[in-house]
Amino acid sequence: MTTQTKPDEAPAAAAGDAFLSVRDLKVHFSTEGGVVKAVDGLSFDLERGKTLGIVGESGSGKSVTNLAVLGLHDRRKTAIDGSITLDGQELTDADEKQLEKLRGKKMAMIFQDALTALSPYYTVGRQIAEPFIKHNGASKKDARVRAIDLLEKVGIPQPQTRVDDYPHQFSGGMRQRAMIAMALSCNPDLLIADEPTTALDVTVQAQILDLLKDLQQEFGSAIIMITHDLGVVGNMADDILVMYAGRAVERGTVREVLKSPQHPYTWGLLGSMPRLSSDVDEPLLPIPGSPPSLLNPPSGCPFHPRCGFTDLVSGSRCSGERPTLAQGRAAACHLTGDQRQQAFIDKIQPRLG
Ligand SMILES: Nc1ncnc2c1ncn2[C@@H]1O[C@H](COP(=O)(O)OP(=O)(O)OP(=O)(O)O)[C@@H](O)[C@H]1O
Predict the structure, then answer these.
(1) What is the DSSP-derived secondary structure letter of residue 106?
(2) Cα of 188 to ligand 1 centre, how many Å?
(3) Helices 140-153 + 124-136 axis angle, to 10
(4) Which ipTM did the prediction report?
(5) How far is 66 from 208, CA to CA, in rounded Å?
(6) Which residue from 42, 55, 60, 228 has its CB within 8 A of the most atoms of ligand 1, so it is best to mutate?
(7) What is the pLDDT of residues 249-290, one digit of tens each?
(8) Is 195 helix (H, G, I), strand (E, B) or coil?
C-alpha cells in the first residue's frame, strides 16, 4: 500500500540518531466487515538504552504497532505503510529471513503470559539456550553455560539445577523471569515488553519491573513498554506515547505527561487510575463511552464523541478536522494551549490531587 498524504503526526524529533524510528506508520487489516485501521499514521523515536511507555485503552493499537516493529504481521492480509528503521535498517521491506535474524539478535519480545511464550515440551534451559545457538553459532555446552548465567541474572535460585526444569515446574513469577532470560539470550538492543507484569500479583510485579530496570542498565537495551497502567510507566519509562484509535494523541517525558498532561484523553486515563493517596470511597473517573470502531472511526478528532471539552472549541472543528501532533512535547487537540492549561487547573488537577 502506498499513500502519499502528509503525515498527521510530526516525529518526536528531527530524524537523526534515534535507534528506533517509526514514521507515519499505518497498519490496516482487510476483514470481511471492511478495512480496520488499527494504526493510522503513527510516528515516534526511541534512543538506545531508553524506555518508551506506550499507553492507551484496549484496542488503541499498542500491540499492532509493536508486532509491526517485530515484523510479525501476516503481510498477505495486512497493509503496512510508512517506515520503521532499527539502527538505520528499514524493516518494512525486510524479508522474513532478515526479520527472523533481527528478532533473534537485535530485538526480542517479553509477553504478558510466559505460558504462551515458553513451550511446555522443552526445559527452560534449552529454550533460553536455543536463540544463542541459532543466532550466535554457540555450541550446546556454551549455550547451557549462558542459560545458567542468565537464569542467575534474572534471580532464579540454584540455576545449575533449575536449568533442567520444565516451565510447569516454575512459579508464575519464575516463568516470567525465565522468559526475560530467553529474551536476553542474544543481548538484544531492543526489548518489547507487552504488559509484562499484568498476570502477576503486585509484589512480584514490582520485583519484575525492578529486574527489568537493572537488566536494562547492564545490557543497555532500549525498551518499549506497552501497558494500561500509568503507574508502571511512571516507574519505568523515560518518555510516554499516549495512543488512541491507532494514533498518538500525546507525547512527552514521563514527568511532562504525568504532571502536566495536555490531552483530554490523557486526563481521562489519569482520572480512571486508582491512587494510593485517595480515600477508599473516592470514585474513579472513568472516560465516558467506549473506544471507537476502527472500521469506521469518527471524523475529525477520534476522541471528540467522548471528550468533555469540545464546547470550548469554536465551530465544529473537533468533529470536522483531525488535529495534528506537533514535534517534541505535544498533544493532538484543538484546544489552545491556554484553554488546556485553564481546563486542567480548574477541572482536572483538583480531581487528580
Ligand atoms: N489481525 C487483525 N485483524 C483485524 N483487526 C485486528 C487484527 N489485530 C488487531 N486488530 C484490531 O486492531 C485494533 C488494535 O488492536 P491492538 O491489539 O493493537 O490493541 P491494544 O491497544 O494492544 O489493546 P490491548 O491493550 O487490549 O492489547 C483492535 O481494534 C483490534 O481488534
Answers:
(1) T
(2) 26
(3) 120
(4) 0.98
(5) 21
(6) 60
(7) 999 999 999 999 999 999 999 988 766 555 555 555 678 899
(8) coil
Q: How far apart are CA 64 and CA 300, in angstroms?
A: 22
Of ligand 1's listed atoms, the one at least distance from the Cα of 294 is 29
The neighbour count for residue 345, using CB atoms within 10 Å, is 11
Spatial separation of the C-alpha atoms in residues 22 and 190, rounded to whole Å: 14
Where does the chain show beta strands of DSSP type E? Answer: 20-31, 34-46, 51-55, 78-86, 89-90, 107-110, 190-194, 222-227, 239-244, 247-253, 330-331
Give residue 311 CA to ligand 1 midpoint distance, Å: 31
Residue nearest to atom 2 of ligand 1 (CA): 29
Cell numbers at residue 341, please?
492549561
Buried b (16+ CB within 10 A) or exposed e, 71-110: bebeeeebbbbbebbbeeeebbebeeeeeeebbbbbbbbb
Candidates 62, 112, 244, 269: which one to mutate for ligand 1, based on the most atoms within 8 Å of Cβ? 62
Per the structure block, which three cell numbers stand in for 33?
466487515
Q: Is 19 helix (H, G, I), strand (E, B) or coil?
A: coil
Q: Are 133 and 186 in contact (CB under 8 A)?
A: no
The residue among 184, 190, 240, 186 whose CA lies nearest residue 215 is 184
The pocket around ligand 1, CB under 6 angstroms, is made up of 29, 31, 36, 38, 56, 58-64, 228, 294
**Residues facing 53 on adjacent strands:** 225, 240
- Tens of pLDDT, residues 82-114: 999 999 999 999 999 999 989 888 999 998 888
In this structure, are residues 23 and 5 in contact, taking their beta carbons and an 8 Å threshold?
A: no
Q: Count H helices and E strands in the chain, helices first.
A: 14, 11
Ligand 1 atom 30: the closest Cα is on which residue? Answer: 59
C-alpha cell recorded at residue 116: 504462551
Q: What's residue 256's pLDDT?
A: 95
- Look at ligand 1, atom 25, and give the residue with the nearest C-alpha: 58
Q: Which of 36, 112, 242 to mutate to test the pocket of ligand 1 (most atoms within 8 A of CB)?
A: 36
The residue contributing the CA closest to ligand 1 atom 17 is 63
